[in-house]
Amino acid sequence: MRFTSDTSSNGVREQLFVLDGASGEVPGVLWTPGDAAGPRPLILMGHGGGQHKKAPGVAVRAHRFVTGGGFAVAAVDVPGHGDRPTDEELNRLATANQARADAGEELAPLIAGFQALVSRRTVPEWRAALDALHALDHVGAGPVGYWGVSLGCGLGVPFVAAEPRVRAAVLGLGGAPASADVAARITAPVQFLLQWDDERVPRAQGLALFDAFASAEKTLHANPGKHGELPAFELDGNLRFFERHLR
Amino acid sequence: MRFTSDTSSNGVREQLFVLDGASGEVPGVLWTPGDAAGPRPLILMGHGGGQHKKAPGVAVRAHRFVTGGGFAVAAVDVPGHGDRPTDEELNRLATANQARADAGEELAPLIAGFQALVSRRTVPEWRAALDALHALDHVGAGPVGYWGVSLGCGLGVPFVAAEPRVRAAVLGLGGAPASADVAARITAPVQFLLQWDDERVPRAQGLALFDAFASAEKTLHANPGKHGELPAFELDGNLRFFERHLR
């Protein structure tokens, strides 16, 4: 793990870093309280499709988790996203999927196949990121939370299923074809965000994914609105959920 | 409104009262912070079937709303419940419904008919209770919240639909046959609690009732478990919801 920048603003310290991965360098960001010393729970966040580790939907929530809960929060770029090079294989698949969707094919299974392919790279990358972050003095090897919706859910489900250090996960905006089999291996508490009028994930598939988690504690939060219209007040509920399970 | 007792314990003042209603006296309870002076938002709570105004499921939550949010909280006995006399008409109907259910008839429509009948009495009684409570110095005529699940949802839906003073409602453990038409007249923010394995309310009917609310802001909170197994952590979410809308 190599740090490339270290800045602070509004009580939040932001450190950019690079990790060596099997598919090349993995750029990441770590946010901690400005005065952080000693161990604290870590929340890893997965960004959405076409976004990156510092996209507003990630950064705004990360700042809240840091300032509101004293957590450490980290995110890394998914292959083909952010500061990572264009990935020809993923590009070809995305283009082919778009053509199949334009020709009338059902979108959800195409998304599912794409995310399954990407997750074969991100699961080991994210586990390696945990290893490196846990070795830092101001993070430490404490309990881990995961936050990810949409692509962050499609990649998050296999990550949470594979990673016993994750003790609580906020997931959402994903559907069963992508993840139901893998979701059935998850036993950590889950808070699942579903948009009632999601134009990308059919309602029944979102409900089926929630149904699939093996977690004894799991809560579905459903709100009216489209895929990109998660209500701001859910962030407060996310924070309370992480505080309850990671503290 | 006639007060019959006034006690305090652990920072919560409890006043028992009686209101005159069209179907006889309506016994009620008002909880406020021990040192309450001046107006504050009021939360009216509806109890469950076979329960009463001070049943643990009501009292525990009421105390939290008072001590955690500084709210005034009130509940009154439903006809045939608590300190109210046995109601022959309701008893006959309940007995007849039980016989029909035992004979294999679907339970949900029977519950729906029963709750619709009872609500013709409770809606005016609860509106009269608001009038009387709003005239008290330590309550005042501020915004009103409603909390009720199961029978408290079946009776709460027509109450919230009829009462413009209600600015936020926690409802749940109810289904569409009982309330969908009336729910479509509700525009206040709703937090709706659904038990994923409810043995009394089929899942699809609970989801259909959530779907029916006309509220621009409504959130479904679904958790694993049976009808009587609402998780304790939802109370925290109820309190945050009321704080957001009534303060």
From TrEMBL, chains A, B:
Gene3D superfamilies: alpha/beta hydrolase. The keyword Transmembrane does not apply. It comes from the Bacteria. Keywords: Hydrolase. One of its GO terms (molecular function) is carboxylic ester hydrolase activity. Belongs to the AB hydrolase superfamily. PANTHER family: DIENELACTONE HYDROLASE DOMAIN-CONTAINING PROTEIN-RELATED (PTHR22946), POLYKETIDE TRANSFERASE AF380 (PTHR22946:SF9). This is Dienelactone hydrolase. It comes from Pseudosporangium ferrugineum.
